[in-house]
Amino acid sequence: MKREELVDYLDGLLVPGKFRDYCPNGLQVEGRGEIARIVAGVTASQELLDAAVARNADAILVHHGYFWKGEDGRVTGIRRKRLSTLLANDISLLAYHLPLDAHPELGNNAQLAQRLGWVAEGRFGEQDIAWLGSLARPGRLAELAADVARVLGRVPLVIGDGNRPIRRIGWCSGGAQGYFEQAIALGVDAYLSGEISEQTVHLARESGVAYLAAGHHATERYGIQALAEHVGRQFGVACEFIDLENPV
Length: 248
Fold this sequence. Notes:
Blueprint: H1 3-14, E1 26-29, E2 37-43, H2 46-54, E3 59-64, H3 77-88, E4 92-95, H4 98-102, H5 108-116, E5 118-124, E6 130-140, H6 141-152, E7 157-159, E8 165-171, H7 180-185, E9 190-193, H8 198-207, E10 210-213, H9 216-219, H10 221-235, E11 238-241
Parallel strand pairs: 2-3, 2-11, 3-4, 8-9, 9-10
Antiparallel strand pairs: 1-4, 5-6, 6-8, 7-10
């Protein structure tokens, strides 16, 4: 397939123009014009780039790419090595950040709900990134935490009474603890995201709403994995998702 065909398809599918984001979405580094093999991962780290080179990939598809707002724009050190790897091997880099979080079927939050058996009922937060819903089978917080650990392969940090009944839940993958207060106002029993800070612990304790911090990487693996599988089926190209270990 042509590189432009892939970029046009993904831009049409994820509609990055709808979002105010912290980075450019879509084609970030231009490689060869023909694409037969794609490697996908959460973050365009050097380890993922090296894996793509070893697999003779023509393109890399990620959730976390490059050129974030506020970063030092000089091409030195780690940034130089990463870009040199892509350019020397003529590999394209495509990245979709908020558009992938938000997609109703392939997105990180949609995939979390699908894997955990949550029933989505609405959206909230800036640009409707966060999701609101209910558990298919209401239960106690301890049971919810065990279910999250089983599905994500990572024990979440849980703030709250394990015996608390949980029916309604809010969630947003990655670093979205900033939506916790809105979730509380919407009447949820628990909120799940990837990260938690010191002040959020107090908010959970004082509000009585449980908080589950399940890992930034762990909560954002499934969107890019689902997108890679979709692209492989759509175009009949080899599209391999590589899950690199990240404890955060």
